[in-house]
Amino acid sequence: MFYTYILYSSSLNKYYTGSCQNIEQRLNDHLNSRSKFTRTVKDWEIKYFETFHTRSEAYQREMQIKKMKIKKMKSRKYIENLIAIKG
User: Fold this and answer.
1) Which of 31, 45, 57, 81 could form a disulfide with 52 if both were Cys (CB 3.0 to 4.6 A apart)?
2) What residues make up the domain containing 61?
3) Side-chain half-sphere exposure of 53, counting CA atoms within 13 A
């Protein structure tokens, strides 16, 4: 099983989107300074995730979410809507 996930840091008020095979281990990596973007704070929490059968599917979904910024859409609003729907 593979995952696309969204983390949130309340101290930064930012979201982080990624994909992985082991979501618990990946969160641990983020909390223990093994990721450049997330190393500045230690309050990341999983707010949303989707499961996929292949790494490729999970990565494609990660890129789809991240491309919202490129399309000048409100990526934060899109992410918050995903989280609200999964609720």
Assistant:
1) 57
2) 2-86
3) 0
67 — pLDDT class (breaks 50, 70, 90): confident
Q: What is the pLDDT of residue 76?
A: 84
- pLDDT of 28 over the 80 cut: yes
CATH number at residue 7: 3.40.1440.10
DSSP string, 26-65: HHHHHHTT-STTTTT-S-EEEEEEEEESSHHHHHHHHHHH
pTM: 0.88
Q: At what angle do helices 55-70 and 75-86 cross, to 10 degrees?
A: 130
The reported pLDDT for the residue numbered 22 is 97
* Gap between the Cα atoms of 51 and 13, Å rounded: 25
H/E segment holding residue 17: strand 14-20
